[in-house]
Amino acid sequence: MCIQESLDNKYCFKSLDKTSLKELDTFISQTVSKGLSITEVDNLFLRTKGQGPKYEEKTINGIKRQVYHYGKNRNPFRIFGYYNEEGYLVIHRIDPKHKTHKTS
User: Fold this and answer.
1) What is the CB neighbour count within 10 angstroms for residue 31?
2) How far apart are CA 95 and CA 47, in angstroms?
3) Is-contact 56 78, C-beta < 8 A?
4) Which sign does the torsion angle of CA 85, 57, 96, 94 carry?
5) DSSP tag of 8
6) Cα distance between residue 43 and residue 30, in whole Å
7) What is the rounded CA–CA span in Å between residue 75 and residue 20?
């Protein structure tokens, strides 16, 4: 997991409160800290609608990306990101209350 460029302005660190920061820390502890593979993270956290991976096509800095949604169970906390050429999940949005689709 990495931050390769500026996060989406409405979904970045400056908008996180103390509870949201704890949620981010929990996500990192349950993924990066455990050394999980991409497949293991996908199996545990990738949000789907029952028909396979849920992603949105989005052009970021002139490159079309598949942005994936990660979260756990019914918890509204979400991480949105895409995989770069080196295979890292690049964080694009941190959405602690899952407001992305309510404001799109």
Assistant:
1) 20
2) 13
3) no
4) positive
5) P
6) 13
7) 11
- Say what the pTM is: 0.84
Write out the two tokens for 48.
């789907």
Instruction: Give the containing element (helix H, strand E) for 100.
Output: helix 100-103
| Residues whose CB falls within 8 Å of the CB of residue 3, separated by 6 or more in sequence, listed in order | 90, 91
Identity of the residue numbered 62: G
The 10s digit of each residue's pLDDT in 17-34 is 999 999 999 999 999 999
**Which two tokens mark 63?**
């490159």
In whole angstroms, what is the distance from residue 63 CA to residue 61 CA? 6
Mean pLDDT of the 33-45 span: 89
DSSP string for 12-56: SGGG--HHHHHHHHHHHHHTTTTT--HHHHHHHHB-B-SSSB-EE
